[in-house]
Every structure is written in C-alpha cells, then in structure tokens.
Amino acid sequence: MESGSFSLAIVCSNSERFSYFKSILKESFHRIVSLPFGKRIEISLSEEVFDIVLVDAAYELTFGLQSIQHLLEHKNLRNKLFIFILNPSQDSIKHQIYRLPNSQILFDPVDKFSLITAVHTGLRLSALQNRVQVYKELLEGEQKLITYMDELLEIDQMHQFDRFAEVREFLQETLLKKIELTLAVEKAFFGFVEKGEQRLRIEQSGRKNQLERVVYFSYEHSLVLPLLEQNKAQVLERADLADSFVQELEEFLGFRIFSLLFAPVNVFHREFGAIVLINKIYRESFYENDLAFATIAAQRISFVLEQFLLDHPTSDALSEFSVSPVNTKEAGQFKLIKSILDAVNFGVTVFDDRMNIHYLNPGAQQILNFQQPIAQVRRLQDILSKNVINEIRGLLKNRELPIVRHEVQLESRLFPDSYIGLSIYPLNSVEEQGNKYIMVFSEITQTKRIQAEIIRMDRMASLGVLSAGIAHEIRNPLAGIKAMAQSLEDELKDDPQKLEYIARILRQVDRLDKLLRAFFTYARPVRPDPSPSSIKKIVNEVLPLIQSKLRERDIKFTTAYASDLANVFVDQNQIQQVLLNLFLNAIDAMPSGGMLKVEAQNAKAAMPVLDRRKRIPALLSDKFIEIKVTDTGVGISPDELELIFNPFFTTKSQGTGLGLSIVYQIIKEHGGQIDVKSVPDKGTTFTILLPAI
Q: What per-residue confidence (pLDDT) applies to 620?
C-alpha cells in the first residue's frame, strides 16, 4: 500500500522504539508524529487528522487507559483505529482494550510483518468507513433537497408571469440552471413535446435570451415514448443507453452519456414536455433520491402550468401545445367551481399523506391568518402548528372517513383560544398515487364563546339565586344570635372567662355577616354609575389604602402610563374596589417583598383576547385601554389559574372566595374583560380591558 496521504500518531515514551516503529511504517504513511503518555495533546481541527494511533505500552508498568483518555475521546479520533502493543503480562488492561469499539492488540516483541498487516488492514477499514460516511451524508443531503425543493427551484415564479414566453424562458433557462446546481448534473434540458411528429423540441438561447437554435429528438421508437404516455419518470442506464433517443442526444452533445433521467411533464392529462437530466457529476448513476426529486419537480411544474393556463385562457400555449382543459364545457365548470371556492368564507384545502398541500383557497388564509401568499404555502406545517397536524394525523389513522364536524383548537400568539370546526373527506383519483384528502373548515371561535357564556351564565344565575336565598334565611337567625350574645355580654361583666366565650361568638357572627354581605354583592351586583375618569387618578386614590402594607412587606410600587392615555367611562368607586382587591392579593403573594407594578396604555389590538372564563367580548365601544397589574410574588399554579374567578374558590384560610368573583362581575358590568397569566415562583399579571372615550 502506498503512503498516499495517511498520517500516524505513535504514543511512546522510548525514543528508540519510536524510531524502530517509524522505520517499519514509513512506507505506509507520509507523516508520523510522536505523542507522549499522560500529557493532553490538543489536535486542532485545522490540522491533519491521524488515520491510526499506535500505542506502545509494552514497557509502561503503570499504563492505564486514563493516560490516553484525551485521545480516545477526541472528536477527530473517535472512530479511528487504535493499535495497542502490550506485553503478555498486562492481562487487566487487555480486557479493557477489548471493550473499545475500534482497537487491536499486538504482543511484544512485534514482528515487522504482523505490524504492517495490522496497519494496512486498519487503513483499508478506515477508508471504507469514510466512504460509508460520505455516502450517508450524501443521501441525507439529497433527502433534504426534496424537502426544500420549492425554495431551491422557485417554481412558483411562474405565477408572476403574464405571457407564456416568460414561462418558456423560465423552463429552459432559469429552472435548468437551478436543477443542474441542486442535483449536480452535467447537463439538464427541458423539451417540449410535439406529439404529431413524436419528437421532443429543445430550444437553445444565445446572448440576451435570444433564440439561437431549435433541436429535435425523435422518440417514435424510443423507450421514452411509453414514459410520456404513462407520465412516468425513469432512469435510463446500462443497456438502456443503446436507445435511439439516447444515442441521438449523445451525438448532439458530443460526449458520452453514462446515465439519463427522464421525467415527463403532463398538463391537463396531455403530454406537454419533459425534464431530461444527463450524468451525475460525482458518480456514475442517478439514485432513488434523484428520481424522487425530478418526479416531484415535474408534478409541481404541471400544477403551476395548469394554474397559469387557467388564469390566461388566451395564452398561445393552449393552441401551440394542444393543451387545455378537456373541453370548453369542463373548462367553464372548473372556472365556476374555482370562483365559488375563492368567494366562500370557509377554508378548503387538499392535502396528501405527507401533509403536502395541493390546493388552498383564500378563505383558508383569512381564517388561519397567515401572511405568506397562498402560492408559496406548500405544507400544512406552514400554516398549522405541530400539535394540530398531529391531531389531524391521529384522526386519519384512527377514524373512518369522512370525518365530520371535529373541533380543533388553534395555537396563536394573538388569539390563544381560537377554534375551527373541520371535516375531512377522501379525494378519489385513479390517476394519482397515494391518498389525498379534502379538508373543509370554518372558524367557530365565536360559537364556542357563546356556548361557554351561556353555560356560565346559567350556572352563575342559579348560584346567585341560591346564594341570595341561603343568605336571607341565615341572616335573620344570625341577627337573633348576635342580639342574645350582646345581652349575655352585659350580664356577665364580672366573669372574664365567660366574656371571652361571648367575644368569640360575636367575632364569628361578624365574620358570617361579612360573608353574607359578600354573597349579596355577588348575587345582586350594584349597577355601575359610569362617568369619564382617569385611571391614573383612580390608582392614586387607592394607593394610600395600601401604603402601610407596602412598607411592612418591603414592596416597591411603580406605575407606567402611556403619554396619550385615554380616559375611561367607568364607575370610579367600583374600579377602585377592583384595583384594591388586586393590590391586596398581590401584597399577600409577596410575603418577603418584591415589586408591584401598574401599567396602562391604549389597547393596540382590534380584538381583545378571551378571559379565563371564555366569555364573549362585550366592550361598550370600539376604543378601550389596557391596564396591567403585575407582581413578583409566588405565582399561581396552572390548575388554580383556571378556577380563580369562580365563586367560593380561595387559597386563603380566612378568605371567602368571592373577591375575584366580584372583581369579575364588576368588570363585566362595565362591558370590559379581565384575564390573568402567572408563572409559579415568578409572579402574576392581571390584564383588564375597559371602555375608553
């Protein structure tokens, strides 16, 4: 074996033995380097990588793998062969070496023949591993090419053209250059079919894209004739290269064809043209990934061409290539259906098992609110989240078609609680391979909101009536209990122990009375008396009520108001009650201090987000402001977050569980909304939307 460009590292502490091994192996390696034991050697990525590491440990009495661990773990040497030279007495290290994936052991004294044989075997194995890795990376790269085909070839450019001459130029110039670079082929052609003459016409342009010459290649008795008729892509190689079409093409090119890939392009089920790829640059033949890439590219070209011809019914291509919808009647029906689908306010898409999109109507764009042009949307992943796509996959796998009226929650930063109702039907086509599906969907967010509001209102109304009735029945005997206790208090002035019992009774009666007043406030809320007000002024009036608590807890209070903040149309006393409740909750959540911040700004969104109760938006005007109350407290767990506005839910031992329910009622009576977000151990933010003037 010639030395080529191989390099060897010899780990050895004896200079004489290093010279001995070097003299034996100098014919096999162009570079041999000595490395010491136990010293960390950094091998730069920019430097030469060793092909084999020879470790001479026969005279190292304390040798262990830890002394070369830095070499075994180095990323440049991880898959390289390590040859260890040991003496027969080193049994313990021998068993450790056998467990290494790429290792070989030679026992000292080592004869020249055994060492050279081991080295040459290792070099051959290393070369084979390198070839396998290159092949693996090559296949992975080509698979990625298929995934990103639309971005690489930019086939959708044809949508921008107004004349077929521009389409023709794109197919024969721009597209071919991109295919040649993407697939690394020696030459690429796009030929137009002349069916009557049974020949393929290839046009070649000169400078400034002027037509230079036209060349014809007959396929009358060629293997490509059935490929065109069946719309089937195929690689021609070996015996196929004797085909008349290939021979004629080879004569025209002036060089030998080793492999040819032929991919027909049909338009409206008629032969239109073909992509012809000749010779891979870095290997002799085309692989399956090349065939798949060309097939999908041909299908995409067919689809875009059909769209172009439908949008340009007077195009000269219709008569020149005899391609058109099957007849005038069917063309009219197609245009009618397309006009209907373009006009409807529900979404329609056609997709396949790979989640590739074959059709998408404008209604889908409005519902899903994506920005890119419809023509550039190629996969469901472009417009739907991963969770939604997995849900659709699950439906197709576990449910029989058709799937009717299934609800899906969308994931959106602006509208986190949006829903669509979808139905999926099979698309039966005898000419297409694989399954395709029609998905029809519409937005049902408003319907879901109304349903949730009706259920909530019904539950809360019943609860309010029940609460009022219970409170009324309890309040009368409670008043009697309090009166009797106060009488006993007067009679037992001289008995301190019994007076303590009476005091406890009175405290509990007052606590129940406070709870009953909260019941009445919740069940029969006072109608707000709104007037133009300033949020800044309302906050300043509440602040003195909590100043002492802020100082006790070492809590910093800050505000941030927009310079152009609008006034609100609210009942000042009730909004003060709302803010006071939120401030007190925030203070309770920060027993060790923190920050409480109030922010107010004119709302930027045209539509507010839903609150935790999923209630329908009911703003009194199209203008509103957004108020945020943020603390850095203990936060609220996700389970509790869904319940905090429900009546009687509390995490406080002395709480009634009605504070936030009353806050919710007040905001609702003002035609506003309230939402909450929280991260445990980081803090909570309440967001309020109130009508502005």
A: 45
Query: What is d(CA 387, CA 253) in angstroms, rounded to the nearest whole number?
Result: 52
Same domain, 615 and 657: yes
Regarding whether 210 and 269 lie in a shared domain, the answer is yes
Domain boundary among 488, 505, 524: 524
List the structure tokens of 596.
């409480």
The CATH number for 341's domain is 3.30.450.20
- Cα angle, residue 216 at apex, residues 215 and 219 outer, rounded to 5°: 150
Supply the DSSP symbol for 173: I
Please, are residues 355 and 381 in contact by the beta-carbon 8 Å criterion? yes
Q: CATH number, domain at 313? A: 3.30.450.40
> Are residues 585 and 393 in contact, defined by beta-carbon separation less than 8 angstroms?
no
Nearest-angstrom CA–CA distance, 445 and 413: 15
Tokens describing residue 174: 């721009």
Please check whether residues 261 and 342 belong to one and the same domain: no
Residue 137 lies inside a defined structural domain of this protein: no
Residue 309 domain flag: yes
Boundary residue ending a domain (321, 344, 362) = 321
Q: What's the pTM value of the predicted model, to 2 decimals?
A: 0.38
Q: CB of 217 within 8 A of CB of 210?
A: no
3-state SS string over 543-583? HHHHHHHHHHHCEEEEEEECCCCCCEEECHHHHHHHHHHHH
Range of the domain at 264: 154-321
Q: How many domains does the chain have?
A: 4
Name residue, tokens 């027969």.
Answer: 88
- At 134 the pLDDT is 63
Please tell me the distance from the alpha carbon of residue 94 to that of residue 108, in angstroms, as a whole number: 13
Which parts of the chain sit beneath pLDDT 50? 1, 43-46, 326, 414, 430-431, 605-620
For 447-458, what is each residue's pLDDT tens digit? 776 666 666 556
Residue 279: inside a domain: yes
Measured at the CA of 622, the angle between CA 617 and CA 628, to 5 degrees, comes to 65
pLDDT of residue 507: 81
The pLDDT of residue 264:
94
CA 492, distance to chain mean position in Å, is 75
Query: Number of helices (H) and strands (E), helices first, in the chain?
Result: 20, 23
Instruction: Specify the pairing of strand 81-86 against strand 103-107.
Output: parallel
Contact of 615 with 665, CB cutoff 8 Å = no
First to last CA, the chain: 90
Residue 631: its pLDDT value, please?
94
What's the Cα-to-Cα distance from 384 to each of 380, 392, 556, rounded to whole Å?
6, 10, 43
CA torsion sign, 66 to 69 to 71 to 72? positive
- 484 shares its domain with 548: no
> Is 141 within a domain?
no
Looking up residue 124, the CATH number of its domain turns out to be: 3.40.50.2300
